[in-house]
Structure formats: structure tokens, C-alpha cells
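Hi X.,

You mentioned you wanted examples for the new student's onboarding notes, showing what a folding record looks like when two proteins sit in one file. Here is a clean example. The first protein comes first, with its sequence line followed by its C-alpha cells.
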Amino acid sequence: MPQSPIPTTEVIIAADCWQDQPDAEDVIHRAILAAAERVDAEVGDAEIAVMLTDDAGIRTLNSNWRGIDKPTNVLSFPALQPTGPRGDDDAPRMLGDIAIAYETMRREADEEQKPFDHHLSHLTVHGFLHLIGYDHESDAEAEEMEALETEILAHLGVPDPYADRERLD
């Protein structure tokens, strides 16, 4: 049986505020699918966990893992993978975890006058790209990552999230 290009994705609702967004899980699954189909990475045998949390939860994660004591919109935690060939009996590999904060995400969507689902799609794609090695530490990395995000989001019918901002030179 051929391997699916789509990683297994578990969505964990860790904060009650997400109950107001009953379509959030579907939005996340569509965003992961679109990203997985458009990247040059083998992710079909992998697993991802996406935790939908609140500002307090993501602030704790941000403080513990990055030393930054404030909430943020999304955090990604790529899993460390063993090297070498995988055997047929190996369990699926863990690609990593993504955490998304409701209040910060809602505020950003409102301030930028974007539909909530569009911003959720963007943050999910952004987090997924971090899991497979993309970053935005340098201008060149940011430009590459933003271009890929924009391409993936276009396939979801989401406008370029960077269109209202000056592009990096």
C-alpha cells in the first residue's frame, strides 16, 4: 500500500476558549494537508500534535523553552529523530508539536481584519514549516519561508498574509 503524503495529526484542545471555534480542527487538518503536499520533505509516516491553548498556556511554554516570559501566537517543537534507515517494524516517527494561543491569535486576526480561519491556517502552516526545518532567523530564510507559506495558503484560498507589509529586500 503506498504511503500517504499526509502526516497523522492529532489536535488537542487544551483551553476552553477554543470551544467557540468548532471548525478549528478541520482548518488545521486542511492546512497540514496543503503544506505536506507542497513541501520537499517526507512527512507521510510522521505524526504531529497540535495543541490549541490559551495565552497562559503558551506563555508558560514560551518561558520554559525560550526564556521569553510572554505569550506568543504559535510555537513549534521539532522532534529529535534517530539517524539511520528505518525498519519495517518502526513506529511512526514524531515530527513534532505545534502550540497555538487563542487570545493572541484572535487579537491579531481582529487587528489585521483577517478571518479567524485564515489566520489559524497561516499559523498552522508556519508551525508545520518550522517542524520540517524552515526558519526565519536571517532575511534570506524569512523570504524563503514566507514565499512558501504564501504559496501553500493560496491553495487554501487564503490571501497572502504578508501582502500589507513591505517585502524583505
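Then the second protein repeats the pattern, sequence line and then C-alpha cells:
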Amino acid sequence: MMNAVPISWFLTLSAILFALGVAGFLFRRNIITVFMSIELMLNAVNLSFVTFSYQHKEVAGHLFTFFVMVVAAAEAAVGLAIILTVFKNRSTLNIDDVNSMKN
């Protein structure tokens, strides 16, 4: 019978995913890439919540992850609508070119 995967592996994966999300958020100039980086950070935090919830044999982490996913889905819908509107008005997705709300 196989042994279970250690908790530290999940937390390490979560830290790596979060670091990649932060790097993408800080160093990329495309709005879509920045948006995906934010979602990656949210999913890394969700992985940590589920890992700690599993370790402590409680359901709270799973429930909190569910609520984070619901909020992230709503944020994705609104965020993508805003991104589409910005692209329609400016014809670019570069953050440096979209620096104000004025036309």
C-alpha cells in the first residue's frame, strides 16, 4: 500500500504557485496575464486552506475555499467584462497604455 503524500509537499506547491502569481502580477504588462496571475494566487491560497483543513480534520478550510471560489468566479466575470470594454475602447491590453479612465 502506498503512503500518503506529505503535507509539506502541498504547502510547497502552494508557495511556488503563489510566488509565480506574484511574479506574473509584478512583471507582466498584459492585463489578461495579470488577471490570470491573480487567479493563480487565489488558487494557491485555496490549496493551503484545503491542506490545513485536511491536516486538522475540519471542514472550515473546505468551506472557506468554496466561498473564495464563488467570489473568484464573480470577480472573473466582472473583470473580464471590464477588460473587454477597455480593449474595445483602447485597442490594447498593455497596462502602461491604459493608465487612466479617460478616453
